[in-house]
């Protein structure tokens, strides 16, 4: 009986398997790999093929995303995961035909001009990614006039030798509409609401402003305008600050804001930490099946306590960890991950560790929960002194007061995490205990 053929997604035999890596532009690359290759190796092979001219200066910007097309699930794959680990964790759970590997720029540089000058190939790749995300975004709210400006810039880039009066000719515009397709330049939401004749007149009027720009100038201007309406260089996560006792926050991660949170009373953000301040990252998930929760824990330089974020799922915690870890490597020039990926499933009854993972190669020392940080003289629930009269808090004397003042929040966080966490969150729950008379 013949042995079954090896699945193209499973590195289960000694023969090399093949993975199809898709690009934002619609292209793809096939990579043959062995069992031991990691995601970083796959990315390196693919990015080297993007151009034969020199090495990618901004190679650290790239990441790999695994998508299951039928359910719209997506997972960011850490650079140190092997393809065998990817298969065991994700691929084998569903038919391999449902999965899609995507190469994307996830860790963004602070200067697009610098990216354009030092790594033109990566800049073009990044531009294609942003443009495709913009055109396919189902709920993006953008003014028609802005959409027309972006359309003109892309037309100028697409037809780089087009003269200024080319679109004044009806035949040229009909070619653009019928042969190329306006969906390549304008979001479908705008096409559905704007009449074709009005769109044509607007494009003809605006196009002349950009006819003198070079291809690179068109792309930089496109990104500059779009960034005001579509923050493509940021990712947001709804999490909770803390583990046992937590406060909802919306984290914003990006090259300009670092690790920040949204302000509830304004449209701005408040910075929590810079990426180069992060010393260690760990993700953990509880063993309790009824109340499963995942935590992301950050050790921050200068902070008195480990920073806890409770996430809705382990996948969210891991995505956030990968993002912070990638920015740390980008901004520090390090090639080593500071994310301890071992033993993500925690146990409250592990012996001997008290929050320290002995298998962690980076020397990370992160506690698994607030409950495991125990003072030798006792904790808050069990005072060291057995004279309980001065320590008892009666439930009837507890008052909950929801505060919106950032000043009060600062006082709390300064006590918990030190002065580096000023203006940390806008919402804070204070417990006031009145002593018994």
From TrEMBL:
EC numbers, comma separated: 2.7.10.2
Annotated keywords: ATP-binding, Cell junction, Cell membrane, Cell projection, Cytoplasm, Kinase, Membrane, Nucleotide-binding, Phosphoprotein, Transferase, Tyrosine-protein kinase
Transmembrane segments: none
Domain FERM positions: 17-335
Membrane topology label: Peripheral membrane protein
Classification via PROSITE patterns: FERM_3
Cellular component terms per the entry's GO annotation: cell projection; cytoplasm; focal adhesion; plasma membrane
Compartments (UniProt record): Cell junction, Focal adhesion; Cell membrane; Cell projection; Cytoplasm
GO molecular function: ATP binding; non-membrane spanning protein tyrosine kinase activity
CDD domains the record matches: FERM_B-lobe (cd14473), FERM_C_FAK1 (cd13190)
Full protein name: non-specific protein-tyrosine kinase
Species annotation: Cryptolaemus montrouzieri
